[in-house]
């Protein structure tokens, strides 16, 4: 079994009397895209910054590519790309100068011109960093993180402030880097981004990991799915609940509109249609609604991601 790209065990981080990370543990498999999700203040960024070597743990341990992020920083630095939530470039430096400087620090960097074109930075190459728009700064920060062909990439909110085209270009770049064997750890406030990009998701709240799994596994592991259908008003919903094969709840949300919440499977659907047929009722517009990753997140944390 291959060594985890990142291994965090019982991490504790405090700011004065405030505990930001409280015994957090997680692993990141090599070659995968792993998302760390959580409401504001959950401890995501502090955890990422500790893995990047910017903060020393107050408790627990962190290993990155099998090394200590602080003690082995010199060895790790060429292998890890970091995109900070903000900053990372000198305020007066021009965008192309900054990127070429970063490329000069690596033995086998990506082609600067191709990366500039890929991320739509060509029009702002001579613009000082402080005068770039928020979206342009984000794209430059991403380019700086990937220019050195890292084995491991940390991305903190990589598409915040980007327009849809730039966001899609970022997704494509992350996908291509994964195809080249790069491991990516990202935080994001966009659930669709986590669902599209991630192989593994860790949901963090109050400084702890409260759930882990693939987007599909997390979506299917929580609240029950629903079936919506229409029929004549006034069906005997109590009798229907008794007929259904699982622990389900049936409500008539408005006349002729029904919702079944439960463990939805073929047996439940077959029983529903058979019961309706026995009542001389035609069930119409039968729709199965699956729980999403966002539904599961809200169920676990009670908070919206934004």
Give the gist of this structure.
With 306 residues, the chain is of the alpha/beta class.
Contiguous runs where pLDDT drops below 50 for at least 5 residues: none
**Radius of gyration over alpha carbons?**
24 Å
Mean pLDDT: 91
Name the CATH superfamily assignment of the largest domain: P-loop containing nucleotide triphosphate hydrolases
Architecture of the largest domain in CATH? 3-Layer(aba) Sandwich
Number of helices: 11
Q: What's the level 1 CATH class of the largest domain?
A: Alpha Beta
- Into how many domains do the coordinates divide? 2
By DSSP, the count of extended strands is 13
Major sheet: size, sense and barrel closure?
6 strands, mixed
Q: What is the CATH T-level topology of the largest domain?
A: Rossmann fold
What is the helical fraction, as a range of percent? 25-40%
Sheet with most strands: strand arrangement: 5-6-7-3-8-9
Shape: elongated
Percent range for β-strand residues? 25-35%
Topology:
Elements: E1 6-15, E2 18-28, E3 33-37, H1 44-51, E4 59-64, H2 73-76, E5 80-83, H3 95-104, H4 112-118, H5 134-146, E6 152-156, H6 164-179, E7 183-187, H7 191-197, E8 200-205, E9 208-213, H8 215-220, E10 225-230, H9 237-243, E11 249-254, E12 257-262, H10 266-278, E13 284-289, H11 293-301
Parallel strand pairs: 3-7, 3-8, 5-6, 6-7
Antiparallel strand pairs: 1-2, 1-4, 8-9, 10-12, 10-13, 11-12
